[in-house]
UniProtKB/TrEMBL annotation:
This is Arginase. Pathway: Nitrogen metabolism; urea cycle; L-ornithine and urea from L-arginine: step 1/1. GO terms for molecular function: arginase activity; manganese ion binding. It comes from the Eukaryota. Belongs to the arginase family. Transmembrane segments: none annotated. One of its GO terms (biological process) is L-arginine catabolic process to proline via ornithine.
Length: 308
């Protein structure tokens, strides 16, 4: 297999203002905040061309969307993420590097489906405080932002409303970094499906440099597979990124988060980057500014910004 390499990719933004995968409104304004703080221009400043922006004004919210089992707003989530899937697929098939701005993390049902449709051999690096692996059976909250990976892995059971999601992600092509708040049901699923996870414990033990190497050795041993990075801003310590709906103490430092993005850029294999769960409605103005600015700089690092 010849190694996949993106040298100077064209970038497509998919701005997904959506918050119904969880109960706190506000993440739907994340994309606009990131973009209006100058993200697209910053990306062009790195020498890249931003040639498409899917700028959603919003998705259909079905106010009388009834629960399916425990799942909340299932049809609303399915419709929005399906639309995102089609957009990501289109840009990825056109050879673009896709930057997906959320929105809550249920959107990864769409972003990863789109990436895998265009790049079937891609692997996923999931950077998060949470595993987002709950099935409709194991979820304790019913919030779909805690469930996207069970659908992508095909372990969510048969829910017709989500049957558009092809279970194309293999457990051995998924790796986590940053976990520290994993539900009991998710711990069982991680073991059962042999999914590799580097929690904050391993980040402390080995250092972030070694952890990223080990993570890539697991999902991408020959460094030949395209990489989809799904970054939940709550992977960062709340002191670094406070404006997010489910903050968990003991997270990645500013540098650890950026190092992950820089190291993945250096592989030349990134085909998509998600930046999810920025919630400008939470915490004070200073905290929002800080969180938005960290979100932008994580994306710049993933797209090639260097310190020297
Ligand atoms: N994308 C996130 N921030 N997810 C948080 C998930 C929290 C919890 N595990 C749940 O299922 O609800
Ligand atoms: Mn999270
Ligand atoms: Mn998440």
């Amino acid at each position: 297999m010849t190694a996949f390499k993106f040298v100077k990719p064209q970038v497509a933004f998919v701005n997904a203002p959506f918050s119904h995968g969880q109960p706190k409104r506000g993440t739907e304004t994340g994309p606009l905040q990131l973009i209006s703080s100058g993200l697209a221009q910053q990306v062009e400043g790195l020498g890249l061309t931003v040639d498409a922006v899917e700028d959603h004004k919003g998705f259909d919210i079905l106010e009388n969307d009834t629960d399916i089992g425990k799942l909340k707003f299932p049809r609303t989530v399915s419709n929005a993420t399906r639309q995102v899937y089609e957009e990501v697929e289109k840009h990825a098939k056109a050879g673009k590097l896709v930057v997906n701005l959320g929105g809550d993390h249920s959107l990864a049902m769409g972003t990863i489906s789109g990436s895998l449709s265009a790049h079937p051999d891609a692997c996923v690096v999931w950077v998060d405080a949470h595993a987002d692996l709950n099935s409709p059976e194991t979820t304790e909250t019913g919030n779909l932002h805690g469930c996207p990976l069970s659908f992508l892995l095909g372990i969510a059971g048969n829910i017709p409303e989500f049957s558009w999601i092809k279970p194309l992600l293999k457990p051995e092509r998924l790796v986590y970094i940053g976990l520290r708040d994993v539900d009991d049901g998710e711990k069982k699923l991680l073991k059962e499906h042999n999914i590799k996870a580097y929690s904050m414990h391993e980040v402390d033990k080995y250092g972030i440099g070694k952890v990223v190497d080990m993570a890539l050795d697991h999902v991408n041993p020959d460094r030949s597979r395209p990489v989809h990075l799904s970054f939940d801003v709550d992977a960062m310590d709340p002191s670094v990124a406070p404006s997010t709906g489910t903050p968990v103490r003991g997270g990645l430092t500013f540098r650890e988060g950026h190092y992950i993005c820089e190291a993945l850029h250096e592989t030349g294999l990134l085909v998509a980057v998600d930046l999810m769960e920025v919630n400008p409605a939470l915490e004070n103005e200073e905290a929002v500014k800080q969180t938005v600015s960290v979100g932008c700089s994580l994306i710049r690092s993933a797209l090639g910004e260097t310190l020297l």
